[in-house]
Amino acid sequence: MNSWMPRQRGIVGGGQLGRMTAEAANRLNIRTLILDAENSPAKQLVSSNDHVTGQFSDPAKIAELANKCDVLTIEIEHVDADALENCGKPVMPSPSTIKLIQDKYAQKEHLIKNGLATAHSEAVEATEEACSKFGQTHGFPFMLKSRKDAYDGKGNSVVKSQDSISTSLNELNSKFLYAEKWAPFVKELAVMVVRSIDGSV
């Protein structure tokens, strides 16, 4: 094993992506421990008596996992980033990055700041008045989105007209929203970027 490789990596979250991460780590001869429910997909792949059973948003369980590992990573962003920041072990991606992607509007602002084009969006209050103002300024339809706990289409609602604002607000049921100008959809492209600990991309 190369000297830079951790002896034992903790994965916060043991779903499908956690399982894929554990499988890849196994090929590199890196042991993994998982924090998630008892029979989560990743735990089904990796047999160990040292796995931690519990919620991956539980600070005490994150600390328990950290005590058993050299470095931690996550499979999903819905974790306690503050607990990871204070766990005393290296965390990759960094807790500051995790906090950024937990807020989808802050994430968009970060992309814009770094020169990436996105559809125009604005943080809005969860009121019909605020949403109506956005629609009148930027047109209907538009997207109303949750800033928190949004992924894979969850937390998105199409506001088709003035009359559908209340329906979208009830559907999202969130105080933390942003509105996004309608963008004609052509296709989706995914790009994966990997950076090493020395900054190489």
TrEMBL record:
Question: ATP-grasp domain location, by residue?
Answer: 108-163
Domain of life (superkingdom): Eukaryota
What GO biological process terms does the UniProt entry carry, in alphabetical order? Answer: purine nucleotide biosynthetic process
Recorded GO molecular functions are: ATP binding; metal ion binding
Report the PROSITE patterns cross-referenced here.
ATP_GRASP (PS50975)
The pathway noted for it is: Purine metabolism
Provide the alphabetized UniProt keywords.
ATP-binding, Nucleotide-binding, Purine biosynthesis
One Pfam family, short name: RS_preATP-grasp-like
Stated name of the protein: ATP-grasp domain-containing protein
